[in-house]
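User: These chains co-purify. Model them together.
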Amino acid sequence: QQPVQSPQAVILREGEDAVINCSSSKALYSVHWYRQKHGEAPVFLMILLKGGEQKGHEKISASFNEKKQQSSLYLTASQLSYSGTYFCGTESDKLIFGTGTRLQVFP
Amino acid sequence: EAQVTQNPRYLITVTGKKLTVTCSQNMNHEYMSWYRQDPGLGLRQIYYSMNVEVTDKGDVPEGYKVSRKEKRNFPLILESPSPNQTSLYFCASSALGAPLHFGNGTRLTVT
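Assistant: Joint model of the two components:
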C-alpha cells in the first residue's frame, strides 16, 4: 500500500519554510526522499534508516519516527531551486513511493 | 559517467503493436526496477529484479513483461499495448539497500 504524503501541494515565497509528511501503515526499515523537477527524472535526496536519525542535505533535512511509521522532510529558507515534486519511498519488504507533494517557490 | 539509459525517450504506437523499452546501467548494480508515473498516482512499480535471471512483480504488472539476462540490461516489453498503458515510464537501478538512480524516462502514448 502506498504511503500517504501530505500536503499534496505547497506554495511558498523564497525564504519561507515547509514540512512534507509521509506516513505508512507498515513497519518500516527505511524511508527514501527524492525530488523530481518538471520533465526530469527523480533525484535522490536522502535515506533515513530505522533508528530515528535525522539527516540533512543543504537546508533540507528529514526525520524518521519508526514507531509512528512516519517521516517528515523539512525545507528551511526555501530557494527557487527547491521547486518540484517530492516523493517519499517507504521500505518494508520492498520500496513503495507515495503520490508526491508538489512544491512551488516564488520570488 | 555513471548512468541509467532508457530508450526511446518518446514513443507513439497503436493498440496491439508489440514494443520494447530498453534500459541499461553501467554501475554494476544488482537491483533494477521499472515504474510508471501517472498524474496524482506517483511512481508505481511494475516489475523489479534483484539480480540476473531473478525478476518479480511490482504493484502494477498486468500487461507488461521483463527479462534480466544480463546484469546491465532490463528491458520492458509490452506484448499488446493498450491505451491505458499510456504513461511516463522510468527505469531505475541501485546497489542493494542503496539509493535509486533513475533513467530519463520514456513517454509512451498508445492510440
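The longest strand of chain B covers residues 42-51.
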